[in-house]
């Protein structure tokens, strides 16, 4: 009944908007993603070492401009998943069908013996703007991150670098109030809804510019912790220079949470021939100095800004180059210097036609047993994307 009500509400919004001319928009994409997975060790309960999935991924982005001040947004993703991974790992459906928000907007409308269709509303909000004020209520993306790989300041919507097929990133159920104090400065306050204090959050952010740099300061309460953080973005001799740092301290003395400081610094540069390079360093005060323990990509671990990596240090590097205007290549890698495990990610993309792109990429993990990347294995992907 809950899902039926959500569909009816969405239908009414779309129908009402279409009754008026030129005050709404609808766009999205359709993607076909094939994955081949060779785990380092055969997964428990499976009969084969090599696993595959095929995902037809559709996204719909709807906006209704109700007035000059009010905009309604509803966006959803639908994924039809098939393959031997679903057959051999029946619990995978439960892993995918998760919603960590205050409202459960994730559901499986239809399913078969070895396939299922998963749908989720990851954006559903009302936006009101008047003068220097902007208020947004509902499921939305609260993006406080600055860096391109690891974002300690992104305390509301942390994401995994390895989840490359989810460009929009997750949202949170919250009310967000912003006040623009100048052309390059603003203050905002975000309250995240939750059933318990450890699921709620209340934090503020102030952005400003000085010395040709953009700065931000943040503080508040996020789940079991108080948080204090800062970030910057600028350049040095034409090279981008960014950084973020966040300190977490438990709100209660008897809390199971622990103090932690997470920081990341990155630099990137584009040469005159369009070669792009990017490097980043992550520091976790609570990270492990030895074997970090295996990262599990299939179980979709609930990532947070406090646990961006299991290790105390992580190093990232990337280079990309547009071989032709239609064809580009990229190489990226991550090293855990504490346990010696590492990740390697080659990628190729080709524009077949307007709004039609073919991409192939790999996620190759190496290392010894019980290291962060040593027990994962190798994944290969091929994706065809059509945008409309």
UniProtKB/TrEMBL annotation:
The keyword Signal applies. It comes from the Bacteria. Keywords: Signal. Residues 1-19 form the signal peptide. This is Porin. The lineage of its organism: Bacteria, Pseudomonadati, Bacteroidota, Bacteroidia, Marinilabiliales.
